[in-house]
Amino acid sequence: MLTWTWALERLRSSHAYWLATTRPDGGPHVMPVWAMWHDGALWFSCSLGSRKTRNLLAEPRCVLTTENPREPVVVEGRAEQVTDLATLRTVLDVENAKYGTAYGMDMLDPAANACFRVRPATAFGLIEAEFTTSPTRWTFDA
Fold it and tell me: What's the rounded Cα separation, in Å, for the pair 120 and 107?
């Protein structure tokens, strides 16, 4: 079994993440996003008019996965849109530090963009080379 520390290392270090949402007709929608592990959750942003945002506002259940298929961490949870400016400033600082960017608050301006927090309900991890012994599931309180 893998430790949650193992999963956190991958959640913190992944550059890109795959976000799976549900379209209004029930079909799947998967797109890459930048995300940050902060304060017990994955955080990401997208424009208000994007398919990702529209899907999440209608159906907040989603899945985020790290980019490495040989040692993936898969997080299932509910996306919560965050509009509190103090929280958004903190998230922006975390994003700028992680990605080496210098975005301003317009990047997370709630009038144009949506910032989402996904706290894990369930997470899965595995190591491809240890496929028969490594698959691990973690569950979290709601």
Answer: 25
Of the candidates 1, 9, 12, which has an alpha carbon nearest to the alpha carbon of residue 99?
12
**Strand partners of residue 73:** 125
Per the CB < 8 A criterion, the answer to whether 71 and 134 are in contact is no
Specify the pLDDT at position 30.
98
Q: Which position has the token pair 């976000």?
A: 19
Write the pLDDT tens digit of every residue in 35-75.
Answer: 999 999 999 999 999 999 999 999 999 999 999 999 999 99
For the segment 128-142, what is each residue's pLDDT rounded down to a tens digit?
999 999 999 999 987
Assess contact for 134 and 75: CB atoms under 8 A: no
Q: What is the largest CA-CA distance in the chain?
A: 48
Rounded CA-CA distance 42/44 in Å is 7
Report DSSP state, residue 135: -
Spatial CB neighbours of 53, under 8 Å, sequence gap ≥ 6? 46, 47, 114
Taking the whole predicted model, whether its pTM rises above 0.85 is answered as yes
